[in-house]
Specification:
By secondary structure, the chain is an alpha/beta fold. The protein contains 7 helices and 11 strands.
Length: about 270
């Protein structure tokens, strides 16, 4: 299932389905550049936040402008590989960089609009983590107080048009799910057991995005695949996945997690 980082020779444009339901261990920009246009229906991802997290194969402390330039190149390739009407959901916080407050979500929105994405809205992911705060700025004083944010954004965009064409028979979201997920305040606890990665997605967040924004059998990609949460939820919900990460250790963990889910559910992936 897995492609080794050194052995990968590139995406075969004439046979794109060869990369479906595979773990691709490669730099995400390089991997996407070798993919055909209009291929993915949904992208769900959370890029490194550039706040010094201990990723295995990524510098998470880049100068902020360099970091933004890198992100923009990622979003350009995501745009190219999305189908018309395809969606991308990007989980970002507001971050502090170089000792200053940097509203990353604003900068990402500006990047996406510049590229040509249509913004669909934003989801407020309430993480319930305010109890873990350790700093207040100036305690009980107006001299220099600052607020903490127990939430992150999930920014949602689409390519060229708002509507994603699909077979009505492939819709699997329930009435109650649709009502719940269409409220942009999502109260979901973060993953408390990292399991080999410093910032894993909670499955419930991915589940809600997949059910709300895609049809059964759609292709869903995470270019920063980590330990494979997006791919695992794809298997559970009958979607096809494309996993990309440049870290061999994360790729191996993801492959193991996917195989475990397949064994538990006795599902067979369809190429």
């Amino acid at each position: 299932m897995k492609e080794n980082l050194k052995e990968t020779t590139g995406f075969i444009r004439e046979q794109p389905m060869e990369r479906i339901n595979k773990v691709i261990c490669r730099d995400c920009i390089e991997a996407m550049k070798s993919m055909p246009e209009n291929f993915m229906h949904l992208i769900i991802t959370s890029p490194p936040y550039n706040v010094g997290k201990p990723y295995k194969n990524h510098n998470d402390s880049m100068p902020y402008k360099e970091y933004l330039n890198w992100l923009e190149n990622v979003w350009k390739e995501c745009y190219r590989v999305l189908v018309i009407g395809g969606r991308i959901c990007i989980n970002v916080p507001s971050v502090t960089a170089d000792g200053e407050y940097q509203p990353l979500f604003v900068d990402v929105v500006n990047q996406m609009r510049k590229i040509g994405y249509i913004m669909r809205g934003d989801i407020l992911w309430y993480k319930q983590t305010i109890s873990k705060r350790t700093a207040w700025g100036s305690w009980k004083s107006p001299s220099n107080p600052y607020v903490v944010q127990p939430y992150e954004f999930v920014l949602v965009f689409s390519k060229e048009q708002r509507k994603l064409e699909g077979d009505p028979k492939k819709i699997d979201i329930t009435r109650d799910e649709f009502i719940k997920f269409s409220n942009s305040f999502w109260d979901i606890k973060p993953e408390t057991q990292p399991k080999g990665h410093p910032a894993p997605f909670p499955e419930e967040l991915v589940y809600q995005l997949i059910k709300f924004y895609s049809y059964v059998d759609n292709i869903v990609m995470d270019p920063f695949g980590g330990t494979g949460t997006v791919s695992v939820v794809c298997v559970k919900t009958g979607r096809k996945y494309v996993y990309i990460d440049n870290c061999k250790e994360y790729c191996e963990i993801a492959e193991k997690n996917i195989k475990n889910i397949l064994a538990q559910s006795k599902l067979k992936l369809q190429d």
